[in-house]
Specification:
The complex is a heterodimer. Chain A is an all-alpha fold. Chain A contains 30 helices and five strands. In chain B, 49% of the residues lie in helices and 4% in strands. The chains are: A mainly alpha, B mainly alpha. At the A-B interface, helix 1, strand 1, strand 2, helix 3 and strand 3 of A face helix 4, helix 6, helix 11, helix 12 and helix 16 of B.
Chain lengths: 610, 354
């Protein structure tokens, strides 16, 4: 044994000497073998892999607080100095270790305080061991339960590259030389890690999700799925979209100045999520500092399937609204497509087509067939820009868990800028709506003067006003499309579908604008209204936005872009002139009015006279 | 006459006549109508699908328990053998956000899979093929990162034998990996780097770029590359980066070359081997045909790691003079052999900061 001992002492010396840069932290020479990633084997169970690789950069570049430790601080010296290693004792995280810094006296350290805190918390040893068992025992016999949440601790870089950190470290070294010794590089990154968590917000939530979304664990401890309800909140969606300063589980469930290992259940008076403490938790300086105490009653863990309160009722009402408004519109659009597929046509279609061509050949006819003025077209395009921006910046938040959502949000430079853009687009939409109302009032007044009629009469006769006649026309159109009626109803400048869409824009803008404003200025809202209003506003906002997207994105897009009569796009919003196919199909009444006004003879009349 | 009448229907069905008939009946108009109808049918289907998906989504949102997005539940309890065959598993080829739960030390892309290794990909052997039977399976497995199986299991009769590199990405023969070339370059051109920095700049940075690509990115080497490219050759910044590169690079040459050594007289492409092995494995004829050329016992560690000329000529395989000397040194050979034989030994001062 003596000869082999001497031989291997020589081996170690040779190994160290052969490597140009001797790693300061690897004074024991362990990395000579453990630096190889492939140093691994299949475990005795034949399924799992034992990995013996240790990243040398962790120690050489001091990537984490444990880089100051020797391997034998954690692994028992007597067991690992034997080759092949004869490890029998698992690593005990509460063992005393020795922090060995250059030019400093070795310090002794141990995590026993963490053990004490953990013992009094909801995550005590019993709970963690039960969780490990219910997770399928990922930890081997005797392995520390710390591993359920932690792996090798790393310093956060806080967006600072190692190269950029050299300048401040160099400045620190001006004084912290041998006169005032301290390992400035280690100190710099250590402080940085305390200012900003090393793990991303997603990683932190993943750690909690491992247990708090595990059905067996939830059943055992009688807990709701906290991860899924968190991820449906704005905090969770921000996390899903990669925002690093999003509030994670730890931000609410641990008081900022306390150790995260001392997490208590909501029943404890000391818990930050206890109902009495919650208002102050929400209003932490780094979070909703200016909010009212009522903010705490807004739902952070909303699960509609579990809470059958007013929120569930609102969601059900909106489903009904979507089915009863979008449903008929979609059905009519589908039936119109079916008309084309089956080749069914209106008997008067040919005559109307002929009339439209005739009218469009003359300047007077064209003027009569102009459906949108320049002013109206500009207002429409403003609406298009606002709506598109709102959809692109809002729906990725609604569907934050989808892969495409992060991609779209990143196009806007991240969630922060996407949200700002969403707010501004919303504000412009509201201002646009106000402008349109003023525009209508001016038009109304002009018309009132010209016709000499009363205000109410003029208002009810506005071209976009929905009248009982429109309801009859709509009913007639549906019966025609369902083949229960032979003749297609004849609509004028604006058909009933367009009028309903127009009313929908009013309704949608008001609902989305009001709820959006309540959420945007949540500090004001929670000072004057119950916090639950924010949850309700969020539901209204998201459901109404979905309804608007369905109407505009499906029905409206088909009628102005994809329908065979207008494809590749109706020019109505560019030139004011509607394509002949659309005029014939949806505005035959306007054709006849224009013919009458310009003295153009209707082909049918012409034929009967001829 | 009777025959003529019998075939009159065929004359009527004359294709040319049929085409002419269609032409006369406004063929293009008909085709246009057909296109429009098909398009309308497609729109109809899309609309129906949109309607269904919308209602389905709403009902699911309100009445069914939501589920956590899969990306939030991707921790692995233990890293399992099956995962090694899947390139997309975090921690295999893609960086993992954290190590498997049962593992403490951080792992980032720890395993460079070899999709062309017939022995493991045919399903017969695990990607970490050395198990309980091997004396030192972990040591043998880390050699799998940069050696083909035949290097130890089918040793050549005559020593030293020629060996070449095979890309694990394309399975084709390739040059010496860039990192080994760069190590050799830094060693052999140490004086030139001092005296003629501009003359060495192009080759050094090109090799460093290739090295970083093969490693799949490396923060420190990236930094050194940008310093070498962004400074004047010979300037203090450049010299500092060049010196640091020479010091640091050996720590990055850990067998992860995206290439493996293979005996030069064996089939040049891995793909061919893979196809053959897979076919044989499927026919259940694998055992005899495949294993016949293999040695009863794999080559001993000292067959290569020996101070005497061994089975492999490291220098010819592209290793630098220093590294070749280190790999074939007596100390390494003896330690390897001792480890292989499973004889316990120990470092007397381990843990005492020596």
């Amino acid at each position: 044994m003596r000869s082999t001992t001497i031989a291997f002492w020589i081996v170690l010396a040779a190994l160290l000497a052969a490597t140009p840069v001797v790693r300061a932290a690897d004074t024991e020479g362990c990395l000579q073998c453990h630096q190889y990633r492939g140093l691994s084997r299949v475990d005795e169970d034949g399924k799992s892999i034992r990995l013996f690789y240790v990243d040398p950069a962790y120690y050489s570049l001091a990537l984490g607080p444990h880089a100051e430790l020797k391997c034998t601080d954690c692994h028992l010296r007597d067991e690992v100095r034997m080759f092949p290693h004869q490890v029998k004792t698992p690593v005990d995280c509460t063992r005393e270790c020795h922090i060995d810094r250059p030019n400093e006296v070795e310090r002794r350290f141990r995590h026993d305080r963490v053990e004490t805190l953990l013992g009094k918390s909801v995550h005590n040893l019993d709970a963690l061991q039960t969780a490990n068992k219910l997770l399928g025992s990922p930890l081997r016999q005797g392995q520390s339960t710390c591993l359920l949440c932690h792996d090798e601790p790393a310093f956060s870089r806080g967006g600072i590259t190692a190269a950029r950190a050299e300048a401040p470290i160099g400045r620190c070294n001006t004084c912290h030389d041998e006169n005032l010794p301290i390992d400035t590089r280690q100190f710099y990154w250590h402080v940085m890690a305390r200012s900003k968590p090393a793990r991303s917000s997603q990683d932190m939530v993943r750690v909690c999700a491992m247990c708090h979304s595990n059905p067996a664990i939830l059943a055992k401890f009688n807990l709701p799925d906290a991860t899924v309800s968190y991820l449906s909140s704005f905090h969770g969606k921000s996390t899903l979209l990669g925002r690093e300063d999003a509030a994670t589980c730890l931000d609410c469930h641990v008081t900022q100045t306390r150790n995260v290992h001392a997490m208590l259940g909501p029943d404890s008076n000391l818990s930050p999520v206890n109902l009495t403490n919650l208002p102050d938790t929400c209003r932490q300086p780094a979070c909703h500092r200016a909010a009212g105490a009522q903010l705490s009653s807004a739902a952070v863990h909303l699960d509609l399937t579990r809470t059958h309160g007013i929120e569930f009722f609102i969601a059900c009402v909106f489903i009904g609204l979507i089915v009863f408004t979008f449903g008929p519109s979609l059905l009519m659009t589908i039936l119109k497509m079916l008309e084309i597929v089956t080749g069914r046509g209106d008997p008067e279609e040919h005559e109307h087509h002929h009339l439209a061509v005739q009218l469009l050949e003359t300047p007077a006819g064209r003027a009569k067939l102009e459906r949108f003025t320049v002013h109206q077209r500009l207002q429409h395009w403003l609406l298009v820009i606002c709506f598109t921006t709102l959809v692109l910046t809002g729906f990725p938040i609604k569907f934050a868990g989808s892969a495409w959502a992060g991609w779209v949000i990143n196009l806007f430079g991240g969630l922060g800028s996407a949200r700002r853009l969403h707010h501004y687009a919303g504000a412009v939409l509201i201002l646009g709506l106000a402008y349109h109302l003023i525009y209508i009032l001016f038009g109304l007044r002009r018309k009132q003067k010209a016709e000499g009629k009363g205000f109410i009469h003029t208002l009810l006769n506005l071209p976009m006003m929905v009248t009982p006649k429109d309801m009859m026309e709509m009913n007639g159109l549906m019966l025609y499309l369902l083949r229960m009626k032979k003749e297609r109803p004849v609509a004028g400048r604006f058909n009933p579908e367009e009028k309903f869409e127009y009313i929908g824009v009013f309704w949608g803008s008001i609902v989305l604008g009001t709820t959006g404003t309540l959420m945007w200025f949540n500090a004001w809202t929670t000072k004057h209204l119950p916090g639950r209003i924010l949850t309700i506003a969020m539901l209204f906002h998201t459901m109404e936005a979905f309804l608007a997207l369905l109407h505009v994105g499906v029905v409206h897009m088909v009628s102005v872009i994809f329908s065979p009569g207008v494809f590749p796009m109706s020019k109505a919003m560019f030139t004011g002139q509607t394509p002949v196919g659309e005029l014939v199909e949806a505005h035959a009444g306007m054709l006849m009015d224009a013919a009458q006004a310009t003295g153009t003879t209707h082909p049918a009349t012409e034929a009967s006279h001829g | 006459m009777g025959n003529k009448n019998r075939f009159r229907w065929m004359v009527k069905l004359n294709p040319w006549r049929f085409v002419r008939l269609l032409w006369q009946r406004h063929t293009w108009e008909l085709a246009g109508k057909l296109v429009v109808k098909t398009y309308a049918l497609a729109i109809l289907c899309v609309l129906a699908l949109c309607g269904y998906l919308s209602v389905h989504y709403l009902v699911k949102t309100v009445f069914y328990p939501p589920v956590v997005p899969p990306q939030m539940m991707e921790w692995q309890g233990t890293l399992n053998v099956a995962a090694l065959r899947q390139v997309q598993v975090p921690g295999v080829e893609q960086p993992a956000a954290r190590a498997p739960i049962s593992h403490y030390h951080g792992v980032n892309s720890w395993f460079q899979p070899d999709p062309h290794n017939g022995c493991t990909q045919a399903g017969c052997h695990d990607p970490l093929p050395h198990g309980a039977k091997a004396k030192v399976p972990a040591f043998a497995n880390f050699h799998v990162t940069f050696l083909t199986c035949q290097m130890c299991h089918q040793p050549p009769a005559n020593h030293p034998a020629k060996a070449g590199w095979i890309s694990t990405e394309t399975a084709a023969a390739q040059e010496v990996p860039a990192i080994l070339k760069l190590l050799a370059f830094l060693e052999s051109h140490a004086d030139a780097i001092k005296n003629d920095p501009a003359g060495t700049q192009t080759e050094m940075t090109a090799l460093l770029q290739q090295t970083i690509t093969a490693l799949g990115g490396d923060a420190l080497l990236d930094q050194l590359l940008s310093e070498l490219q962004g400074s004047e050759p010979g300037s203090p910044v450049w010299r500092r980066a060049a010196t640091m590169l020479a010091d640091e690079l050996p720590q990055h040459a850990r067998g992860e070359y995206r290439a493996k050594l293979a005996w030069a007289d064996q089939p040049e492409t891995y793909t061919q081997q893979f196809d053959e092995l897979s076919a044989l494995a499927r026919q259940d004829k694998a055992d005899k045909r495949i294993h016949a050329p293999l040695a009863a016992q794999p080559a001993a560690c000292v067959a290569c790691h020996d101070d005497k000329p061994g089975m492999l000529d490291f220098a010819a395989a592209g290793f630098s003079a220093k590294r070749s000397a280190y790999l074939s040194s007596l100390e390494v050979a003896r330690s390897m052999q001792q480890i292989r034989e499973g004889k316990p030994f120990f470092f007397p001062n381990l843990g005492e900061g020596q």
